[in-house]
Amino acid sequence: MTGILERPAAPGRPELHLESDRLGWLASGPPAQRGPGVVRRWLSRHGRTLAFLLPVLAIAAVVQAMNMGGSPQRIDDEGTYTAQAWSVLKLGELAHYTYWYDHPPLGWLQIAAYTGLTGAFDRYDIAVVAAREAMLVATLIAVALVWVLARRLHLSRAMAAVAALVFAISPLAVQFHRTVYLDNVAVPWLLGAFILATSRKHQLVGFAGSAAAFGIAVLSKETFLLALPFLAWTMWRAARKETRRYTLPVAATIVVVIGFTYVLFAAIKGELIPGPDRVSLLGGVFFQLGSRVASGSLFDPGSLSAKTLGMWWQLDAALLVAGAVAAVAGLFISRLRVIAAMTVFLGLFMLRPGGYLPVPYVIMLLPFMTILIMGVTGAAIRRFRRRSTVEAGAPRRRLLGGRAAGAVWVAAVLAAAVVAVPNTATQLRGFLLADLDKPVRQAQQWVQTNVPKESRVIVDDAMWVDLVESGFDRDNVIWYYKMDTDSAVQAQSPNGWRDADYIVTTDSMRTFPTTFPEVKGAIDNSELVATFGSGTQAVEVRRIDADGLDAAAEQAAGRTAARAALGEQLLLNPSLSVSAEAAQTVSDGQLDSRALLALGQVLATTPVRLESTPVLDGETGDVRRTMVLRTGTAAGDSRLADSIRSIQGDYAADRVEQTAAGVRVTYSVVEPDVVR
């Protein structure tokens, strides 16, 4: 069967090219300052394209940008890529820890370039949101390129627009497009590679550009190398026989040269092959191909593979099913055969036994699945609408069978749309309105406000940059993954988790493999001091007890008893009046010892009422470190505030505020041993 790229143009109809009829404006840009006549002709020529594409881009921009910092919740992986991009700009280093060749660096170098050129890190309080803005730009470029590739594969403008729209607003797509993944950076380059590989004019330049784009895609995310055979197949089908002997070798050479730059980079640094106490490129490759823990069987509900596929399924089951079926159907349509074969291969590779399934793997599949769904739908509609007359050389049975197949597919797509539209509306409402990242922000703010800057804190990488920029020493903010894997971090912590003061746990950390003993030891030997959110969204701030929880519990019991004894004495003071709630807190030994001592001092000169001992947001309330006092007059409250501010040293208050409710006194989270 003759491929669509090899067929001659229909009689009386000019052959379509990107440089001419098909989106030449994307190749050369609109004419600038050539006169109103030229502009009118350009708009007349490309008006229909703009009418279809611009609304899709506008919708994609709104869906991607609105509430992009609120949903989904920040995760560790995107924090890592953000921190690496930040390190390139702020520290002049390739990564915030030792770069160990787990991924090629070109992906976060592009994020760094965008954030550096736009000042994104300076415009946002949360570093990950700055990197998410880069994902927004990458997604909009990818949406436009999905349109172009769909048109190159002879989809109608309407079908190309729907493919681009589904790629932009599917809940599965929004979830992953908003997240800072290197795959999002690589997708536009891969799409560009396939578009340039279909060049019919100037093929040497087109194929060279395709090879360069593919090389950049692979150095942005190494898993995109899986698409190489299918890109080569596309070039082979598109290449003219008389020029194939040099266009294809040139493209192959460019791919090899770009890939070799990564090898050369490692060789120059002396990190090509493994050695003692040295990272290496080959070590990183061996880890990715053989050392990673397998994701398990899809039929095991507890496996990573099952959980990953389950998450995809929950987000957009209709797209996954339609995309899989369209990939198989596309094998029988010449113009779709290459990307259909690639999608089938990528799907089977994902399901291979004993392999590792990355959570963002679906990002690579999304643009091709949406094109295939609409490409097969377009072909089905054409068959369905075909008149039931016998075409020249076509038996009636074959014609009617084709119409029936087309009708079945169109009906199936409509049924999938009926299922998908309500789900999409519900999911998008969550993306646009829900603030799932609030617990992370609250925990981060709590740490920045309450934890002494000299403390060592083990954190999810999602907040690493923000804590460092808030004043914590970068060596004292420890990405939890490095506790058991980085010799440099281990050298700074000779006693392991005992050298840390706090650990901020997220769901990824709490479900971290127990084979990492330092992280597990830190969690197991820590007490909860503040928690934000609930369920899998919960973020906990825990204080690590170097002597273990048993010893910490014994010490805490002693402090509580001492506070209770001191509090009982204060309650007998006739100059102190207390609300019922505050009296219970004091007698139970729950009021911070510094507050008790401050009360004892001011009661010597001033009658005071202890109005309340509020629990701060997120805190457990086991120890109340805030109290509200009143004297009965504004002038008396002012003198009371000054008196408490005069207390220094271990007894000093962290904040003293005069409010309408009284003098609000708050102490730091670290309570010294002032009572025993």
Automatic annotation (TrEMBL):
Q: What UniProt keywords apply to this chain's record, in alphabetical order?
A: Cell membrane, Glycosyltransferase, Membrane, Transferase, Transmembrane, Transmembrane helix
What range(s) does the Glycosyltransferase RgtA/B/C/D-like domain occupy? 102-260
What protein does this entry describe? 4-amino-4-deoxy-L-arabinose transferase
Task: Tell me the Pfam families matching this sequence.
Answer: PMT_2 (PF13231)
Principal location class? membrane
Q: Which organism is this protein's natural source?
A: Plantibacter cousiniae (nom. nud.)
| Segments traversing the membrane | 50-67, 126-148, 155-174, 211-236, 248-267, 311-333, 338-355, 361-381, 402-421
GO MF annotation list: transferase activity
The keyword NAD belongs to this UniProt entry's keyword annotation: no
